[in-house]
Amino acid sequence: MKSFLDLADLSTDKIQTLLDLANRLDAHPETEALRGKVLSLLFLSPSLRTLASFQAAMTRLGGGSFVISPDMSIHGLETRPGIVMDGTAAEHIREAVPVIASYGDAIGIRAFAERKNLEHDLSEVEFNALIDLVDTPCINMESAMGHPCQNLADWKTLDDYDVPASGGKFVLSWAYHPKALPLAVPASTLYTAARRGMDVTVLRPDGFELPEPVMRKAKDAADASGGSIVESDDRRAAMDGAHVLYAKSWSSTRHYGDRLADQKLREDYLDWCVDESWFATARDNCHFMHCLPARRGVVVADAVLDGPRSIVIHEARNRMLAQMAVLYELLGA
Ligand code: CP
Question: Cα(319) to centroid of ligand 1, in Å?
C-alpha cells in the first residue's frame, strides 16, 4: 500500500487485512513497530478526532508526529495558483507542503471542500493538487469527497457490533444543521456501507439528494458486493427493520455553493433532529452512529446520544485503531 486516499483504491482482501491488523494491534500492542518514523500532519481544516487519534496512533506504535495548521504561529499560507503574493500571506502552499512532507516518512493532509463548485469538488481538484506536491506516502485525513480513515473505523465498528454485512440494513440520514456542511462523510460512508454489502437507504428531504456521481459509485459497489441502495424521504419506511442509523448533515446539492439558498431550504427541515421516535420501526437494538462532532439538540437529541443505541464513542476510538493499521502498513518494515 503506497498511500491511503480512498477505500475504493483497496481490494476487499486489503480492507480485511487492515481490519484484522487494527484488532491485532489493539489486543497485542507493538510499541516499537514504527520506532524512528515520523508522520507529518497538515491540517488546512479543523479537527479534534483526526488530530488527536493520528498523534496517539503514532505514539502507540513507537513513532512520532508533528502538526502544522494555519491556526499556529506559521507564516500565512497562500493556496491560490498563479497569484501575485502582495497580500498578507508570506508563503505559498507549493513550497510549504513539500517542506512539511520532507520532515516525515508519510504525510496526512486534511483539506475540506471549497464548496463553491460541485464539479470542482467532485474531481478533488484541491486535494489532488496538494498530494501532487509530495513524494512520500499520503493519507487522506478528509478531502472534498472522501474520509477513508473514518470509513475504515466505521467498517470496524459495524464488525465490532456484529452488524451483518449481507442483509444488514444501514440508513444514512441527513440531519438538520444550521450550516451547509461538506459531502465527504456522507459520500464516502454511503460507498463504505455499499462496499460492505449492506442494504443502504439514503434518507433525506427533497433538495438534499447526493450528487449523481456519488450515487453511481456507491451503486456500482453495491452491485459488486451484493448490497443495494435506495433513496427515500419517508422516515418510517426508511427505518423499517434498520440495524444502524448513521446521521450526518450535508449541503444541498441543488444549491451547492449558494449559502443563502441552501440555508433557506434547510430551514424547512428543523425537525430533522434524530430522537427516539425515529427508531419506531427499526430493530429494537438499532445502533446510532455519527462521525462527530454532533450538535446536541440540533442534529441529535441528548437521549439518543447518551442512550444505549449510541456507539459514537466506540466509533471514535476506532479511528485510532484503524489508523494504526494504516500507518503500520504504510511505514512498517
Ligand atoms: N470525525 C472526524 O473526522 O472528526 P474531526 O473532524 O474532529 O477530526
Answer: 9
Question: Has residue 303 got a pLDDT over 90?
Answer: yes
pLDDT in tens, 135-153: 999 999 999 999 999 999 9
The closest residue, in CA terms, to atom 4 on ligand 1 is 49
Residue nearest to atom 1 of ligand 1 (CA): 291
Q: Is the pLDDT confidence value at 209 over 80?
A: yes
The whole domain housing 85 covers: 7-147+316-331
Peptide bond into 308 cis (omega under 30): no
User: Which backbone phi and psi does 111 adopt, to 5 degrees?
Assistant: -150, 105
Q: Is the CB of 56 under 6 A from ligand 1?
A: no
153, part of any domain = no
In whole angstroms, give the CA distance from residue 18 to residue 320: 13
Query: Which atom of ligand 1 is nearest to 51's Cα?
Result: 8
Distances (CA, A) of 330 to 104, 136, 206: 12, 10, 42
Residue 124 and residue 210 in one domain: no
